[in-house]
Amino acid sequence: MVIETQNEEPKHRIHLSKVGVKNLKTFVVTERSGLRHHIVPKVEITIDLPADLKGIHMSRLVESMTEELSDQFMVHPSIEEIQIKILEGLAHKHPFSRSEVRFDFEFGYSARTPVSNKRTWEVCDVTAITRKVNDSPFIHEVEIQVIGNTVCPHCMANNDGLTHIQRAIGKLRVVGTTKSIPTYGSMIDVIESSFSSKTYSLLKLEDEMHVTKQMHDNPLLIEDVCRNILQHAKDAYSESDLEIFAEARSLESIHKHDVIAEGRIVTNGD
Amino acid sequence: MVIETQNEEPKHRIHLSKVGVKNLKTFVVTERSGLRHHIVPKVEITIDLPADLKGIHMSRLVESMTEELSDQFMVHPSIEEIQIKILEGLAHKHPFSRSEVRFDFEFGYSARTPVSNKRTWEVCDVTAITRKVNDSPFIHEVEIQVIGNTVCPHCMANNDGLTHIQRAIGKLRVVGTTKSIPTYGSMIDVIESSFSSKTYSLLKLEDEMHVTKQMHDNPLLIEDVCRNILQHAKDAYSESDLEIFAEARSLESIHKHDVIAEGRIVTNGD
Amino acid sequence: MVIETQNEEPKHRIHLSKVGVKNLKTFVVTERSGLRHHIVPKVEITIDLPADLKGIHMSRLVESMTEELSDQFMVHPSIEEIQIKILEGLAHKHPFSRSEVRFDFEFGYSARTPVSNKRTWEVCDVTAITRKVNDSPFIHEVEIQVIGNTVCPHCMANNDGLTHIQRAIGKLRVVGTTKSIPTYGSMIDVIESSFSSKTYSLLKLEDEMHVTKQMHDNPLLIEDVCRNILQHAKDAYSESDLEIFAEARSLESIHKHDVIAEGRIVTNGD
Amino acid sequence: MVIETQNEEPKHRIHLSKVGVKNLKTFVVTERSGLRHHIVPKVEITIDLPADLKGIHMSRLVESMTEELSDQFMVHPSIEEIQIKILEGLAHKHPFSRSEVRFDFEFGYSARTPVSNKRTWEVCDVTAITRKVNDSPFIHEVEIQVIGNTVCPHCMANNDGLTHIQRAIGKLRVVGTTKSIPTYGSMIDVIESSFSSKTYSLLKLEDEMHVTKQMHDNPLLIEDVCRNILQHAKDAYSESDLEIFAEARSLESIHKHDVIAEGRIVTNGD
User: Fold this and answer.
1) CATH number of B113-270, picked from 2.60.40.420, 2.60.40.10, 3.10.270.10, 3.30.70.60
2) C253 contacts in B (CB within 8 Å)?
3) What interface predicted TM-score (ipTM) does this complex get?
4) Which of C203, D155, D173, D216 lies at a CB distance of 3.0 to 4.6 Å from D245, suitable for a disulfide?
């Protein structure tokens, strides 16, 4: 007979907001609009724990994922739909008031070099979270991080056009319902269009010259990049209800440290 | 004549909540109650940016730190006092509504092995943030992370006393005014007393036997560790006004993934 | 007309052993014995540079990969064959005496829980390198890292059977020709059979009890784990010519630090 | 009576090259030529293990360090002398043929801004290893990593002077006896003088303009940076017997990936 330690009275009756598994790894395949993505996410699945129970049943959280993703050849329509199914499966196995599943992964997308028109693969970092609180609808939080660059306008203006240039990282995070949440592709476009220039895996000399000229024609402070992401997201998602966060970071070429900018806006689709 | 690009009109009039420098490194020495600490923090200093200004003066943020910490032999009373001075110095150099300085660093403290009574150095991770919003008092946020362990009571109860044991990590974060904020030493005590056992840099065989017995007498779920941290903090800081957060993570020895628990309480010193 | 800076005389005539690209990301699909793997490697491609040339043509290194991996749906027989093709393609684009391609990636494999017999996905870390020096045959170096655990026999022997247990990491690295190099699956088996117990993504209570008993029946020092990996590899690969390296690390549950062991043997298939 | 598990016969009689502790943390203070350094190293201490012994006595490795570094106020002449003392102390506690101690740490040094002449602190990463094999003299291996930048000469030559600029990282590693090993300060100078420009924690506008002009006057491929480090080290250390390795990496501003160059030379002081 099993002793259900989890159901015992805890020593301290304190409600816990999140209990679960972290750094669990799995494999998923998605396909949307004819584009297939092979994804190796690091997974976190958590629920809340009432003050009067000692513990949760951890293995049921893992099972809610393994049962959903048992077939490695199965093709899913989106990460968000997988996450909803995991939380729905979990609701049948374990009671909770609040549940959340988080995937951190690398996401690949194809691009073309700007002049030589060669096909490349680019990769960005994605965090996708789906959350359920009581009977409220599922809420999704998607954060995408893409590498671009900045050309300093302040140095350029004071230094006869000479300036410093550096790698920069742009982040866009959106929070909304299943209906509101945008595609990863559109979020990547919002970020890439916010830098002095976007970056490429492959650049032949004619591409490199083109990109370098473009960068010098579009000098931006890190504050400009952050505001560009916010404004471009607001324009792109004006029909949806979304909370939108942006962060931009530049790996300064004249310093050992970085400079950063962060902001937040809200769109209202009504 | 200098062109002040920062004072220009931005393309998009959006307020930014944080703009500044990150991953800046420096050195500080503190001494409190006769204990001296050599600290090599990674520093972030940020201010907010009004919607009608293009940028901030980044070098003034760095100067607010370098001027305060220019003398490498100077001994400071605490990290919190250094951070207040940096923000006060910054207020003379640059206008802002909201400013924040964050240090991430390793913090050493001495301990004694439990039976052989030998002296050791232990090291934990600290994040210390000081924040100023308009005319409100300075608010501090201190997070400490210490390594301990867990012994699974559920497996022990069902398996004739055999169980699995693993390294665990406890985090305590407190938020409060300068008057309320506790010492790092007391926070370390709160966390270390919340594990199945605390851990040591050095253990002779007699110590190892003692610690191992103690662990088996005190089996804890990760949920128990998290609640212990919250309860011990509540007991220790009952006279202060603090917002208190705890996180516990265990690097499961029978799994490749971790398990986690998080919670929050508030103390009210009145 | 293009100025070929790379072909200029360098300021200092010094031969460089490795020049190339690093932290490039891509996607590949492999299938071997009916098992399909979706892999997102971080790629490094390098060649040597003679003392009398200023630089290499970096974009040709990237092209040697993008041309080989342009079709995201293409299924390759193995990572080693992809790497050989990249170096063969590169040989047509750029002269070199020594070339090397390295992939770092996560590799998934299916497993079954030991008692409840449920199917799980496990993930390990792989580094795969292929190297070509002048007219010598291609040499491969494969390193696999798997998570298991250790139960301390020294504490157990002195402490009435009570002991400490912890997560451990085993690494096996083999170096040999295309004919000699073993499958990833066999390398994973070698490592997993060398711990006190292997670990699982999912364990129901009956599995957890089984694994915990098995661990206590098989207490091992980190030195034992390292020697087990070496001996098991020697036994498994006795028919091949391989240089074999092992590393084992245990995340001690009674200490904040780790303990490690490393060794090397050679098999001779003759 | 203690059961000495370590002295038992191992299951597999295989010699292990390295057994010991890793990720141990401590604190040291050094002073050389009036400059004081507070260092928080991550420590690895290892010895070899003969084929006929099951294990080593791990706690004696830790004690060889804690006994040497027990007094937090003690000022040591150099990291190399501390490491020699640790290995000498260990030789009295535990037999070995080969022993090694490794410190990884951040090292701070003061600098002056190039035009405004303000004092700053700069920080670099250091790995310092001391090794003893049988009766041979102590051998030291010191690796220093400093952040600088590159300005691409190939793009500049083909693009009417427009080019891309980026943060770069230079590494210099030297191996030699106690007599041969250079100061950290001289190694930092070798690396900093090898970039398009060195970098600073603080730059006022006049400094930023100066640095930016200097960079454009000194465009360098990553291959050039690597060869500069090797040549400058050869020039600086021509009177010593040293094995010298250099690595340079540039965080390309027009790509998401990095480019790298590596090389090796030997100086012979005779």
Assistant:
1) 3.10.270.10
2) 149, 165-167, 199, 215, 253
3) 0.95
4) D173
